[in-house]
Amino acid sequence: MECGTFLDCGSLRRVKIVERFEYPLCSNRCYISCGIGGFRKRSLLWASRFPVTDAKSASSSELNKPIPSRKAFYLAGALDQEQLGKQHLEELPRAKNVGIHKADPDALSGAQKDKAFDADCENEGEDIVSFEENGRRTRRVDVHAISLSLMHAKTADDVKKEFKNLDTLPLPVYSSMIRGLGAKKSLDSAFAIVEWLKWKNKETGSSVSPNLFIYNSLLSAVKLTRDFDKVNEVIEDMKSQGITPNVVTYNTLMSIYLEQGRYQDALNVLDDIDSNGLSPSPVTYSTVLLSYKKMGDAFGAVACFAQFRDKYQRGEIGKTNSDEWKNEFVKLEKFTISVCNLVMRKWLVNDENPAPNIFKLLVVMDEALLKPNRVDYERLLWACTRESHYTVAREFYSRIRDMSNDISLSVCNHVIWLMGKAKKWWAALGVFEDLLEIGPNPNNLSYELIQSHFNFLLTAARKKGMWKWGVRLINKMQEKGLRPGSREWNAVLVACSKASETSVAVQIFARMVEQGEKPTVISYGALLSALEKGKLYDEALSVWEHMGKVNVKPNLYAYTILVSVYIGKGSPEMVESVLSEMRSVGIEPSVVTFNAIISACAKNGMENAILEWFRGMKDYKLKPNETTYEILVEALARHGKPRLANEMYLRACDEGFHLSPKAYDTVSQSLRPS
Question: Quick one: pLDDT at residue 63?
Fold first, then answer.
């Protein structure tokens, strides 16, 4: 390779370094400029007038004229097959007298080879091609200008007219023209050049004729124009010329099949490569992986990579340029992982229950030694948003923790949220404990999320009266540095009240005050209920007095508990005064209040008071409900009034109520003769 610096004589501005690759071509040496993109744009008129320039006869100003800017790329793929005596790039001889950056194909990596040989031919072709003739003269060809003159050529005769005054050029020039015309969507002109080369070889006996790389360029032009009906025409023409496709030809075919959505056909090309004794290049494997990606087949991608890895480790591929193949191996490994990650994300988004497929794929990836990194797992965790994703999210989280303690706090918060959504609150607490013990340190959102989970659990404990669970949750919150609020304390108090755990309720109330949390009317109501159930009536009245001192206004529930306390204490006469006080503060007694009064009278053996309060509901314009009748029927039956109990039972049925089987059994047993 020869490297130099081009200077624009008009501005003395340093422009992009020009690299030249030297190859033996016929009797000439061809230099292909790879740095044309750095030159300033100027008029193309000069180029169209002088498509070929003799370096000796040209003045320095002509040689230093700015070259039109075009996107340049390697032209090694257009080398003459017959002169080299090889059909495959890997068999090309090394160039002699080349500096550190050798241009022989063996020095190129797999990806660079396919770039050089048209697998990635999205560029227009080289603007300028310079070559030495007989080691003395330098000729510079403006390929772009010549290609423009062929834009409307449809047949070989049209090309013949354009080239009648032009000397025979090396094959790299024609190869570049064909690709450039393909990029310009002028496929007929590209075919016309190939037909002209065939005519020129046949009629004039020229040594320049279409070779493998000319046809590779033509196939790339077909791909660029997306005129896929021409693919078979190119392949058949190659066969008629006795030209055997190389790996680049097959790579281009695979990419064409991908463009058409024929993914299985693209995969079948790999079998054709093996059956023809060719060695797949890294681009071949990457194209196969891309096919599996398009198909959404992560298992196929993993199997393909495992096969490639086994061949690579056995030395069947990558014998030469081991360093380059090592780099390509790493790239293919990362690409395979990315395909698997993409497929798993699609499963998480689209499938109702993706867990089985994801776990199966993770096992296959582990067997293939494919290890996603922390960022990969975190992206997958963000895709976990449904309750059914709980097991998958837990697996991803565990894998991140196993590889290192470095994990995003936002991801941890997302996992805590997801665990709560899936009702896996203890698992969410485990993640929160990891934040406290391992890191990263939890933020306000972390505390809010875990607090909300505790609230849900405490609410469940309150509804079911699971006081032990509630106490345990409160203790757990305090152990983890969470401060329970009045809502949490009240939940535990209500659970203790429902379970008639009077002493525990008193302790919880005392802890609540010690922690600096101000009791609410719900707190006092739960404590009153627990004391009433424990028959600690004097203590309950003391709590009632304390409520007034701290200016906590009682609600309907608190008044209902108070009337039960007075009846239990043996002061039923105070019930009327409590009801009057309720009305004076704007709280009307409800059917629940009268149910509590009737129930308290039944527990304390006040048979006459039961019927009086039942009839007194009319004065407050209240109608009894099922609970009222059940309490009344059971109380009358147990206190020696079976006929009245049966009458009330039938009355409830007539009013459309469905009393519990317990009430029916109680009435039936009371009616039986002793």
Answer: 36
Contact between residue 161 and residue 203 where contact means Cβ atoms under 8 Å apart: no
DSSP reduced 3-state for 392 = helix
Cβ–Cβ under 8 Å, residues 31 and 64: no
Tokens of 354: 């993706």
Residues ≥6 apart with Cβ < 8 Å to 151: 181, 184, 186, 189
Q: Minimum mean pLDDT among 128-142, 230-244, 290-304, 626-640: which range?
A: 128-142
The residue among 1, 9, 258, 209 whose CA lies nearest residue 104 is 1
**34-62 average pLDDT score:** 35
pLDDT digit string (tens) for 140-197? 667 777 778 888 888 888 888 888 777 777 888 888 888 888 888 888 888 888 888 8
Task: Say what the pLDDT of residue 562 is.
Answer: 92
Query: In terms of Cα–Cα distance, which of 445, 389, 464 is closest to 473?
Result: 464
| Nearby residues of 521 by Cβ (< 8 Å), 6 or more positions away | 547, 552, 553, 554, 555, 558
Partner residues linked to 21 by β-bridges? 32
Residues 82, 85, 90, 93, Cα dihedral to 10°:
-110
Mind giving me the DSSP string for 637-652?
A: HHTT-HHHHHHHHHHH
Q: What is the DSSP letter of 100?
A: S
Max CA distance (Å), the chain? 139
Helix extents (H) in 296-321: 298-314
Q: Considering the domain 245-369, what is its CATH architecture?
A: Alpha Horseshoe (1.25)
Structure tokens of 613? 């309060």
Q: Tokens 């196993």 label which residue?
A: 402
State the burial class of residue 495 (Cβ atoms within 10 Å of its Cβ: 0-12, 13-18, 19+).
Answer: buried
Tokens found for residue 175: 């190869």
Q: What is the mean pLDDT of the chain?
A: 77
Cβ atoms within 10 Å, residue 510: 10
Q: Which residues contact 11 (CB under 8 A, 6 or more apart)?
A: none
pLDDT digit string, tens, across residues 367-376? 999 999 999 9
Label the pairing between strands 52-54 and 28-33.
unpaired
Residue 613: CB partners within 8 Å, gap ≥ 6? 594, 597, 598, 601
Question: Which strands, in side-by-side order, build the sheet including 18-25?
Answer: 2-4, 18-25, 28-33, 128-133, 137-142, 52-54
**pLDDT digit string, tens, across residues 278-304:** 888 888 888 999 999 999 999 999 998
Write out pLDDT tens, residues 548-582.
899 999 999 999 999 999 988 888 888 888 988 99
Gap between the Cα atoms of 33 and 53, Å rounded: 15
Say what percent of the chain tops pLDDT 70: 78
Helix (H, G, I), strand (E, B) or coil at 50: coil
Instruction: Read off the pLDDT band of 70 (50, 70, 90).
Output: very low
**Are the C-beta atoms of residues 272 and 308 closer than 8 Å to each other?**
no
Residue ranges of domains in the chain: 1-240, 245-369, 373-434, 624-674
What is the β-pairing status of strands 128-133 and 2-4? unpaired
Contact 287, 250 (CB under 8 A): no
Tokens coding 346: 């699609």
Question: Alpha-carbon distance 373 to 375, whole Å?
Answer: 6
* pTM more than 0.85: no
Distances (CA, A) of 6 to 3, 14, 67: 10, 6, 11
Residues in the chain: 674
Residues 421, 410: Cα–Cα separation, whole Å: 16
